[in-house]
Write a structure and sequence with these properties.
The radius of gyration is 25 Å and the shape is globular. The strands form 5 sheets. Strands 19-18-22-15-16-21-20 form a 7-stranded antiparallel β-sheet. By secondary structure, it is an alpha+beta fold. About 15% of the residues lie in helices and about 30% in strands. β24, α9 and β25 form a beta-alpha-beta unit. The structure holds flavin-adenine dinucleotide and NADP nicotinamide-adenine-dinucleotide phosphate (NAP).
């Protein structure tokens, strides 16, 4: 018996119903939830029709399997028979059929590259492609010539697409006690949020985000280093120094052995997600069903989640890796507007609603203090510059759609001097569901630029505030420009249909695409 609650079918708000990125959403039939799929894959049923045999698949063979009842799809060179999965696909059968008999890698990456298909579809694996099918060209070439020792020489860069001159490079040097790796990004304005470092045992991984590209240093170090490391960033020249403390005062002849993706520079979206294990250090109640989880990053990790971005959490549930996105918040809403650099960078705070039938959140809720959970690098399309030029910021949040607004509010009120107004319209079912109501009201009292309105869809007591659902009439009043030519930004986040409707209303009200930012996966 699997240790998860039985499920009938995902409720309308379920992520199992809503495919990411505003794609098609279909109600799944009863008995077709993710948990039901996991159960089926563990049942011993032959999911490929090949009785466990793995085969080499030619392009011609792949193309033949292009019908719902016989559908093969290639993802990153591996071919899966997805026919048994059709009815379980949250985005619907038609979305899956778009890739029938072809290489679906690009389509998959566009919609939900974070979904762990290797684990979810492992029982559907037919085999490998004999010859790689035609797919959109990637930005990176092979790294084979890199398979030599890193002897301090700057190796050849492997970049296509981006100008060679813009490709970062690195160098390293040592003292008796330290190893310093200097990365020259050739870009101004590199800051701490753009540098992600992990060092586990002797394995060093350093990723630098340069616009939409990612530069990766990935080395099996020649000798052991201590857990704590330092990072120095010279913003003006774009130089990043990683300073490692040697465990033993030996002279290093080489830095180490390059790992698979070492010294590559590629589109960020083509880089696989990297996870590190974080320790759960506290879990506090926010409302009757929502908790604030505080995770401690490993000492040898340098990671700051930028405003408006999310991370993925990964857990093994009933033997299958399940991944879900969550948007880090602050431990509380600061009222005194300190510089963000003063905030604690060793912890990640997540405000998570525990659904009584939720697959992932139930497992999360079972975690004990001291347990570990895998946390990915940050992702998301929001850019701070969207706020930096605004005079009025309107935030529309529903339920936990409030989470991206937390850092955004703090950033806007702390760092954006041209903002005259910041208004939050927060939709919830009942008063008991309102997250951080007290703190929001305190903030509104303290800062005259900030205003908050709570809208309840199912008020239970004598609610004197507004009630209802997101609508054009509610919005037209709320998002009105205070001056005819005010530069505005409207951010919206909540259940996918809420966000979609909101975006449509705003469009109908005459707001341009640049003025509206919907948070999606
Ligand atoms: P699911 O199993 O997907 O179910 C969700 C809902 O469906 C619940 O109401 C559940 O009760 C219901 N349901 C599921 N199965 C059944 C069933 N069989 N019968 C009846 N009802 C059912 N969430 C947060 O709380 N905080 C965040 O910061 C956050 N950030 C996000 C960021 C992004 C970019 C995105 C896209 C989503 C974010 N989410 C966040 C949502 C989160 O990713 C998950 O979707 C959410 O936690 C639900 O996961 P689950 O597996 O527990 O629920
Ligand atoms: P909820 O409690 O179910 O709903 C919050 C409010 O939104 C309620 O008033 C609800 O009204 C209303 N609402 C729900 N569905 C609606 C719809 N289709 N149209 C109009 N109004 C609707 O919300 P929740 O359970 O906290 O869920 C939050 C959602 O936000 C999740 O789907 C999560 O994935 C998403 N989220 C996304 C991000 C991101 O960055 N993309 C970040 C965090 C959260 P009624 O229920 O009364 O109808």
């Amino acid at each position: 018996m699997l240790n998860v609650p039985p499920q009938a079918f995902p409720a309308p708000s379920s992520q199992q119903r809503a495919a990411a990125g505003g794609r098609a959403k279909v109600p799944l039939k009863p008995g077709r939830s993710l948990m039901d799929w996991i159960r089926l894959t563990k049942s011993g049923k032959d999911m490929t029709g090949l009785k466990g045999r793995l085969i080499e698949v030619t392009e011609d063979e792949l193309a033949k399997h292009n019908k719902k009842e016989d559908c093969w799809i290639c993802i990153r060179g591996f071919v899966y028979n997805v026919t048994p999965y059709m009815e379980y696909h949250p985005g619907g059968e038609d979305e899956l059929m778009k890739a029938a008999g072809t290489d679906g890698t690009d389509l998959f990456d566009q919609v939900h590259r974070w979904v762990n298909y290797e684990s979810m579809l492992k029982e559907c694996l037919v085999g490998r492609m004999a010859v790689k099918p035609i797919a959109a060209p990637k930005e990176i070439t092979s790294v084979s010539e890199e398979k030599k020792q890193l002897n301090g020489m700057l190796p050849e860069k492997k970049v296509l697409g981006a100008s060679k001159d813009l490709t970062p490079s690195y160098d390293w040097f040592q003292t008796d006690s330290l190893i310093t790796i200097a990365i020259y990004t050739k870009q101004k304005g590199i800051n701490a949020e753009l540098v992600i470092l992990d060092c586990e045992e002797k394995r060093l991984r350093g990723e630098i985000i340069v616009d939409d590209y990612s530069y990766l240093l990935e080395v099996d170090l020649n000798h052991a280093v201590q857990e704590d490391m330092a990072v120095n960033i010279a913003e003006k020249v774009g130089k990043v120094e990683i300073i490692l403390k040697k465990k033993d005062t030996v002279h290093w002849k080489i830095l180490g052995q390059p790992l698979e993706n070492h010294n590559t520079f590629m589109k960020r979206t083509d880089r696989g997600l990297f996870y590190r294990k974080c320790k759960l250090v506290s879990k506090t109640e926010v409302t009757h069903d929502t908790k604030l989880f505080c995770l401690l990053l490993p000492e040898s990790t340098h990671l700051r989640v930028p405003t408006g971005q999310h991370v993925y959490l990964k857990q093994i549930i009933a033997g299958t890796e399940v991944v879900k996105p969550y948007t880090p918040v602050l431990p509380f809403l600061p009222l005194d507007f300190q510089e963000p650099s003063c905030h604690d960078s060793a912890h990640i705070y997540l405000m998570i609603k525990i659904y009584s039938c939720g697959l992932f959140t139930q497992a999360l809720d079972r975690l004990q203090i001291g347990d570990y959970i895998s946390v990915s690098n940050p992702e998301g399309s929001f850019k701070k510059s969207q706020v930096q030029n605004s005079e009025e910021l309107f935030l529309l949040a529903a339920g936990t759609g409030f989470t991206p607004m937390v850092k955004l509010l703090n950033f806007a009120l702390t760092e954006v001097s041209c903002l005259r107004t910041v208004k939050l319209m927060f939709f919830n079912r009942t008063e008991d569901d309102i997250l951080w109501r007290n703190q929001l009201e305190q903030l509104a009292l303290k800062d005259e630029r900030f205003e908050v309105q709570f809208i309840l869809s199912q008020p239970v007591r004598d609610w004197v505030g507004k009630q209802g659902m997101i609508s054009s009439s509610l919005l037209s009043e709320f998002v009105k420009r205070s001056r005819k030519d005010s530069k505005v930004l409207i951010c919206i986040c909540g259940p996918a249909p809420f966000t979609e409707q909101g975006v449509q209303y705003l469009k109908d009200l005459g707001y341009s695409q640049e003025e509206v930012h919907p948070f999606t996966a």
